[in-house]
Amino acid sequence: MKESTKVGIMYTGSAYLVWGLFPIYWKWLEHVAADEILANRIFWSFVSMVLFLLFTRKIGRLKATLQAMRRKPKQAVILIVASLLVSLNWFLFIWAVNHDRIIETSLGYYINPLMTVLLGVFILKESLSKAQIFSFMLAMGGVLVLTVSYGQFPWISLGLAVTFALYGLAKKMIQVDAAVGLTLETAVVTPIALVFLVFTYVNGDVSLFSYSVSTDLLLIIGGTVTAIPLLLFAQGAQKIPLYMIGFLQYVTPTMTLLLGIFVYNEPFTSVQLTAFSFIWTALLLFSLSQTKWYQQKPFMLKNDHH
User: Fold this and answer.
1) For residue 92, what are the contacts with CB-CB under 8 A and spacing of at least 6?
2) Using CA atoms, how far apart are residues 262 and 162, in angstroms rounded to an integer?
3) How far is residue 288's CA from residue 243's CA, in Å, rounded to a whole number?
4) pLDDT for residue 121
5) Which of helix, strand or coil describes residue 300?
6) CB 159 within 8 A of CB 111
7) How does pLDDT run across 232-274, given as a tens digit for each residue?
8) Tens digit of pLDDT for each residue in 206-242?
9) Residue 227: exposure state from Cβ atoms within 10 A (0-12, 13-18, ≥19)
10) Rounded CA separation 46/288 (Å)
11) What does the DSSP assignment read for 212-276?
12) Mean pLDDT in the chain?
């Protein structure tokens, strides 16, 4: 294995490990409303990223990106959409974690890779192999099992999967430096976050600087905690093949699932196990279909990619 690949696995794997531990962090703030946590996360992420760009002398790259977007307003619109999507994704995740629905967030991030490919088919007109089509049918079966058993649509899981998949698509369409991209995305929604924080302060409902020192620190450091895995991922993803990223990304939902069951004692019923089994099988089949081993098999039909 090449040295650059090892470094890539280390960076990317570390990013997914940090993301997998996020429920613990937001649980420490469960006494704060999800919308206030989100507003703080956005504002302090923006502050962290500006400081990071100054420290790494990337402010010039930020200015160049802004000038390029002025010439191409469509890129700016896509960036605004990406910013709103990631903010909605963050809110759903924080809300779910602090309402004892960590297992549902895990399911959402298991479904996410399949949702991403579905967008590729319908929006980027990419084609699917038979194995990939079958994996989608299995995943849909899992979602259907949950929907019927709950008696309601699994909106948290699918909300997380759809918002993050659409966010990924938007990022693919603008392709800016990871640090610059996160700075701009948080800059778009920071004014809204600040207005919200001022409004809650005026109403006497704000937790920042009025609850405890530990709460203040957690809310402020949340910005840096958000930025670290994104920067690790940006460093690592460039050094390893896409199929390897595909396998590593299952670290996060597996960790959140285990946290939900064994640390926070959320119920994991036989119906949920059945639904997860459908989706795990779908992901295994889907992941195998991405590997060279599968694609070089002699039993592969000529028309498998149509």
Assistant:
1) 105, 156, 159, 160, 163
2) 27
3) 9
4) 79
5) coil
6) no
7) 887 887 788 776 777 788 899 999 999 999 999 999 989 889 9
8) 888 888 999 999 999 999 999 999 888 878 877 887 7
9) buried
10) 38
11) -HHHHHHHHHHHHHHHHHHHHHHHHHTTS-HHHHHHHTTHHHHHHHHIIIIIS-----HHHHHHH
12) 87
Structure tokens at 122: 């319908």
- Whole-number Å distance between alpha carbons of 295 and 190: 46
Q: Environment class of residue 213 by beta-carbon count within 10 Å: exposed (0-12), middle (13-18) or buried (19+)? A: exposed
**Token reading at 170:** 């938007």
pLDDT the model gives residue 297: 57
Radius of gyration of the chain (CA): 20
Whether the Cβ atoms of residue 236 and residue 11 lie closer than 8 Å to each other: yes
Question: Given the structure tokens 């940006």, which residue do they identify?
Answer: 234
Give pLDDT < 50 ranges for the chain.
298-306
Cα-Cα end-to-end distance for the chain: 33
